Amino acid sequence: MASLLAQTTSRLGARPAAQAGPVAQMAPMASRVQPAMPSALLPLHARATTTSVACRAASIDKPVVYTPRDSSQQSSNGAGEVSMSISSMDEVGPSYEGIITDAPTRPTGLYVRVRNMVKHFSTAKGLFRAVDGVDVDIEPSSIVALLGPSGSGKTTLLRLIAGLEQPTGGNIYFDDTDATNLSVQDRQIGFVFQSYALFNHKTVAENIKFGLEVRKLNIDHDKRVAELLALVQLTGLGDRYPRQLSGGQRQRVALARALASNPRLLLLDEPFGALDAVVRKQLRTGLREIVRSVGVTTIIVTHDQEEAFDLADKVVVFNRGLVEQQGSPTEIIKRPRTPFIMKFVGETNVVPATSLLAKRMRFNTSKTSVMFRPHDIKLFKTVPPESGEGALTTVGANVADKANLGWVVKYTLRFDDDVECELQLSRDQDEREYNLVVGSRVFVHVPHRTMMGFNASDVDSTPIV
Ligand SMILES: Nc1ncnc2c1ncn2[C@@H]1O[C@H](COP(=O)(O)OP(=O)(O)OP(=O)(O)O)[C@@H](O)[C@H]1O
């Protein structure tokens, strides 16, 4: 969609000056045409329509809205705006007239705020605290991933936001409206689930149309289906049945159907869970482009850390019905706030707090164990100076194992108290600087700031009954 808009605008910019109408100065509602797109190149007209198309092109440094004069030249896109096809512009030629204004700065997606959300389920063993006081802010038009171990409450929160579960306590706000008690229908949300939930007896086009029919939208359904098929790159497959599609294609149909009614919020529950790694990766790139182009706020539940960090603007990590940490992927990866996050996200070494390594590094903690990342270990082939410039405290270890894993080399180091840890290097760096063999004596330093003390209970992820 983004490229369609760019092409559309560049066509507008390329229109011959002779087509400019004398009514250009009469447009009272139009703001000044951007300098990079001289008004002479674009016919302007005083008649504003109720709909518009957002355009962005290399020649203009900010988005604009082009409002065509004739609404028959428009079609609705997934963002609730209106787009036009390039072929129709060629057909209509000089009669294609409209107004250029600055695009509204307000994003089209919903701003979702979850406040002190609680959901307790009654079970034979008593109340089960699936969600136990959660606050989450989801910026308009952003992509947010809910990540966490099985049973941590991700899907329950998604269902609460969708209105499929009633909260035990707390509130959900959509923009400035308290949506806590809104019905599912009134929330106007698009859903995509792992199991696709396509109708097998309906064609692809009919499945997508269903998304329009349930909302009773008064728009040209066939035209909208064609746009959505193009958006998810399935043009030409509208007549097929779901059984005639690959898993990835079926999931794209589910996405098209979810976007059919221009939702301002899209909820995805493990949407790629049933697909293999290569298809998952392709689909997530496609998903990112699609949801960005239509501006819909998107919340995705996933087990897959790579997916969460690659896709999301913000990652919310759940544990036992609570949010352990929320922030940008970089914040979560580089600045884990709790032992649980440290253990759950990325690889960690765990050693006893009484180990030779922890003592030599003078890492004092009241906790029983210490963890640190394999890539935070500093490795030396000879003992570095312990005083003066560049002085570092080190501890000796032997190389117990070496594994060549493609671009990465993994060493297992055994300290003199038999405690082991792992160290990862790029193959390049290993060949350049180390190239160690099993049995070599090495020296390591682990910076204090990268070490975290913890007790087993700090990293427990057993759901709380
Ligand atoms: N209707 C219910 N009645 C009782 N317990 C429930 C109900 N729905 C969910 N739970 C429990 O609430 C906890 C949280 O479930 P939820 O589906 O939100 O977890 P999740 O983090 O999405 O897990 P997964 O990644 O495995 O899907 C689970 O332990 C689950 O068994």
Automatic annotation (TrEMBL):
Locate the region Disordered. Answer: 1-23
Superkingdom of this protein's organism: Eukaryota
What keywords sit in the KW lines?
ATP-binding, Nucleotide-binding, Sulfate transport, Transport
Sorted alphabetically, which InterPro entries does this protein's record hold?
AAA+_ATPase, ABC_SmlMolc_Importer, ABC_transporter-like_ATP-bd, ABC_transporter-like_CS, Mo/tungstate-bd_C_term_dom, P-loop_NTPase
> Quick check: keyword Nucleotide-binding in the entry?
yes
Query: Which SUPFAM superfamilies does the UniProt entry name for this protein?
Result: MOP-like, P-loop containing nucleoside triphosphate hydrolases
GO MF, one annotated term = ATP binding
Q: Polar residues bias located where?
A: 1-11
The identity of this protein, by name, is Chloroplast ATP-binding protein
Q: What is the lineage of its organism?
A: Eukaryota, Viridiplantae, Chlorophyta, core chlorophytes, Chlorophyceae
